[in-house]
Amino acid sequence: MSEILLDVQDLHANVEGKEILKGINLTVREGEVHAIMGPNGSGKSTLSGVLAGHPAYEVTKGTAKLHGVELLGLAPETRSHEGLFLSFQYPVEIPGVSMVNFMRAALNAKRKFYNEPPLSASEFLKLMRQKREIVELDNKLASRSVNEGFSGGEKKRNEIFQMAVLEPRLAILDETDSGLDIDALRVVAGGVNKLKTSKNATIVITHYQRLLDYIRPDYVHILYKGRIVKTGGPELALELEEKGYDWIKEENK
Amino acid sequence: MTRAPMKTQDPALRQYIELYEHNTGTLDAHSAPVMNALRPRALEVLRDTQLPSRSTEGYEKTPLDEMFAPDYGVNVARVNLPVDVAASFRCDVPNLSTLSACLANDAFVPSRDLAQRLPEGVTFMSLARAAREMPELVAGHYATIAPLDQAAVALNTLLAQDGVFIHVARGVRPDKALQLVEILSAPVEMAVFRRILIVVEDDAELRLLVCDHTQERTRRYLASRIIEVKLGRNARLELCGIEESSPLTSAWSGLYMSQDEGSESLLNSTTLTCGTTRNDFCIGLDGEHASARVTGMAIGGGEMHIDNFTSVVHASPRCHSDQMFKYVLDDRSRGAFEGNILVEEGAMFTEAYQSNRNILASPDAMMHCKPQLVIYNDDVKASHGATTGQLDNEALFYMRQRGIPEAEARTMLMQAFMVDVIDSVRIPGLNERLRHLVDRRFAGSLGDCKGCINS
């Protein structure tokens, strides 16, 4: 069996004093794709925020290790350097910061973390060109401010583009399908699939089964009221699609 | 002969009046008749007034009586003070071919061969010398735009002995910008009174960069500066000021501009480092179709205090004005902005806009802003907006998630916040230079004049 990449044990977290995650256990191995599904308010986005280190969340209990490194005490940037990537449900617009400067700062910070010299201007631009092709990101977007004036689809493509540049060990895609039409969905999912290797892993957080037609999960977990209440194979997603979440709610009253 | 009793109770002012009375002859001897002629009137005003204090509207945050109160020396005999003028000429803006001069305290020091290199029709010289050589031209404008009945203006008029005169003849549009490097440097704590007179005749154009530096950073200095500007019909002015002085420097600067029909002005003011700075921008749109754009940015840190005050008076129809000031305040720095727009009764079809946006980067920083619009007719498009907030935490988290360390992410966001002010500067080459200076300032590597000069 391949190595464990992410190991979450008994994770509890609060938002503004209210407990949202109530004991999450999750193990993700290299080369795997996990889908986390669940109704609104079940804690899906909280889980991704907690793993990425968003300051709004307070972890009260539990551990989360990425290739053996305990994440929960680390700064968000250090978690990123360790190989965690979060594709945002709502990518943030940053007026005045160009995509080029943003990506160069991100990439060189990571290189510095691994004691590598910064990329030269020409190496960097070449890399940008290569990675853009993966998600067919328009060249003109690269010269704009981060996400500013991007359409919903362009923002999501931009997330996967950044993932391609940073080559994370573990990517968490938070509702990457929201706001995407079917063509954009295909491009974004295609990008994720191209980036898949035997050494990295992906967690796909989604409401709908639709995305999972394009990004095939090895495991599907159902998150409800802050706990993973059911785990299965891809067929679980199909079952959910058919029956809705009500039977989960019934079972977990 | 008995002197009129001094009514002013303002001790700050009294010391300067006494200085003048004891040194009138010396003062006049080291200046020019055109400038000397105004001193008695200035004195009369000062006897009956006080410098604006904390209880004077518009000066609540930067009382000039306190700024002018310390007992500074004034170099009335204008003895040569050691100023490393050569160093100031290294204060070059790369890619910007400038015709430069230095104002060492109040003494005009041209760069080598400046007079030969100036384009035909462009005058850039000592004000006192110009007042001696071209008394009629200078007298026609000197102290006609700055309101002499205001104490700070009167005080400058009482004591200013020299400064800079810039004249661009009718229709002349030089392709190069002028650069003035102002240096404060003296072996004693000193007050310097500077006067700059700019006349851009009809259809002429001027681009001017003014850099303010303090060379000797361990002493207290006070700079009082008045810039009077006359823009003729369809004249155009771009004036960009950058202050990078020292924590012990106090500066009051008053810019007073009168714009004729169809003239256009672009003013930009950047405060990178300072002690206590108060800048007044008073613009009269006196002819139809005149336009003024005033932009400013201030980057506060340490104990810096930066106060910008604007007064844009729409006195004629169909004029356009636009003000944009941005502050990023860190540590215990203080910022203030008061923006005034007055649209007079006859100024129909006015467009007047103002915006002031600020970021407080530390819990101990403080910003005061006061936008004021006074409109006396109905055919006006006007707006103002003022916001003070913090850095966008979601943007900060997004950047950190991508691996950008927090300090660097904060710096990038602060720089980004200033982008539109930087982009408002049109002098070729200066835009990039300003961006670089702002980057360096945020990165904490500006702190003395060398930062702006080399690299």
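Chain A is about 35% helix and 30% strand.
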